[in-house]
Design goal:
This protein is α+β, with helices and mostly antiparallel strands and about 400 residues long. It has three domains: about 110 residues, Orthogonal Bundle (Butyryl-Coa Dehydrogenase, subunit A, domain 1); about 110 residues, Butyryl-CoA Dehydrogenase, subunit A, domain 2 (Beta Barrel), CATH 2.40.110; about 140 residues, Butyryl-CoA Dehydrogenase, subunit A, domain 3. The radius of gyration is 22 Å and the shape is globular. It binds flavin-adenine dinucleotide. Flavin-adenine dinucleotide binds next to strand 1 and helix 12.
Length: about 400
């Protein structure tokens, strides 16, 4: 199918691209990808890749990336406009958010020109799915304790070690891999970042099943894996600076659509219950105040995102302030998920299809939300960063 961009705006224009994005999504989002409808079969990775490639062709992905790398060359404000519209739909999360939102920006920041031309269009066109190989069995919150070793040889680098909790590794063709060139005592010095091909000999990926029944988590083992020099990102000493930059993006602006998707989930729950006499009282009386609280949190979250975008447009760095939206979003969404599960658990056994659809969606959200206060830095770590780096409290040291 031929398809032209949904966005008829030039990079220099300042008008909102939101209405065009909304019109395209309204016309093109297939029912089979709507998480607010009952689905007999979950979409496959291939279905999701097709859809995301279409989003890219329509100009709704990679909006801020330079045109030379497959993007649209628009500003952050346009990205926010599009993110709002994406969030307002019940579409699935991207299977390549690590490529688009973490690896892409880092490649643009530290990559060579030939790497940018090679890796970046492949991410947007969904030819390469990326995973993030940072955490290890003894290096999660304390990432500087990682042990995976990269040794320089005549052929490039030889890597040995193990990663864990590598989301989507078994579906990925590239891994943003953080390894160390020196000893563990060097901590954040001597860390190096690679764009590793996951089909390289010596890479052993093993899936782990999580409580939602999915097998997206993986352990990844490296046994004398040879990585060519041209797949190193930045210099051997730039790994820590790049990794902390990845983490600040992950905490602050990754999945910018989150607050609007959260609102879509709340609206789905409320409207499905209110439309049915058997469940109307649940939302209109029994849980009305808690649902109102959720709505206030969503508005605050939207404000957080809009303020951050404004600050980035003014040329400021995200830095430790990225911990604020990460902490608030994960806690607020997890509380909503617990409330939603309680509400759907009170549905009558002979429920209608729309109630069955909302119950299935809320159960899924509940399972996934358990991890939200862990990944991209735990709640305790965010509180520590806010105490130390924003409030300047020395915490007993
Ligand atoms: C769904 C999910 C997806 C993930 N995807 C990826 C991925 O794709 N790639 C990747 O590299 N990693 C990924 N991770 C790993 C994630 O980054 C780590 O789980 C996280 O950083 C916590 O590390 P840990 O599990 O080793 O726990 P630990 O660091 O061992 O923490 C255990 C507990 O101790 C607390 N704690 C630790 N240090 C302190 C401290 N200094 N002060 C106070 N409390 C502390 C923590 O808050 C936590 O409650 C993912 C995790 C999840 C849950």
């Amino acid at each position: 199918m031929t398809q032209t961009s949904a966005l008829a705006v030039a990079p220099s224009e300042t008008r909102s691209v939101g209405p065009q994005a909304r019109a395209w999504l309204d016309a093109n989002l297939p029912d089979a990808l709507r998480e607010d409808m009952l689905q007999d079969n979950k979409p496959t990775v291939a279905d999701l890749c097709d859809w995301e490639a279409r989003l890219h062709k329509a100009g709704l992905v990679g909006s801020t990336w330079p045109e030379a790398y497959g993007g649209r060359g628009l500003g952050l404000r346009a990205h926010l406009d599009i993110s709002r519209e994406i969030g307002r739909t019940p579409m699935p999360e991207s299977v390549n958010s690590i490529g688009k939102e973490l690896a892409g920006p880092i490649i643009m920041a530290v990559g060579r020109e030939d790497q940018k031309l090679d890796y970046l269009p492949a991410i947007l066109e969904m030819r390469d799915i990326w995973c993030q190989g940072f955490s290890e069995p003894n290096a999660g919150s304390d990432l500087a304790g990682l042990r995976t070793k990269a040794e320089k040889t005549a052929d490039g680098w030889v890597v040995n070690g193990q990663k864990i909790w590598t989301s989507g590794a078994s579906k990925s063709s590239r891994c943003l891999l953080l390894a160390r060139t020196g000893s563990v005592e060097d901590r954040h010095r001597g860390l190096v970042l690679f764009a590793l091909r996951t089909d390289t000999p010596g890479v052993d990926i093993r899936e782990i099943q999580s409580i939602d029944g999915e097998r997206s988590f993986c352990e990844v083992f490296f046994n004398n894996v040879v990585i060519p020099e041209e797949d190193m990102l930045g210099s051997p000493d730039e790994g820590w600076a790049a990794a902390t930059r990845v983490l600040s993006i992950e905490r602050a602006t990754n999945r910018m659509h989150r607050s609007w998707r959260f609102e879509n989930q709340l609206n789905h729950l409320v409207s499905a219950c209110a439309a049915n006499p058997a469940t109307r009282k649940l939302v209109e009386v029994d849980y009305a105040r808690q649902l109102a609280d959720v709505s206030v949190n969503i508005d605050l979250l939207k404000g957080h995102v809009e303020t951050l975008v404004g600050s980035l447009i003014d040329g400021n760095e995200i830095g430790p302030r990225g911990s604020l939206p990460k902490l608030f979003w994960s806690e607020a969404h997890q509380n909503f998920a617990t409330l939603a599960l309680e509400i759907v658990s009170r549905f009558p056994p002979d429920m209608s299809d729309p109630l069955r659809a909302v119950r299935r969606r809320m159960e899924d959200i509940y399972m996934k939300a358990r991890a939200e206060t862990i990944y991209a830095g735990t709640t305790e770590i965010q509180l520590g960063i806010i105490a130390k780096r924003i409030l300047k409290l020395n915490q007993g040291k």
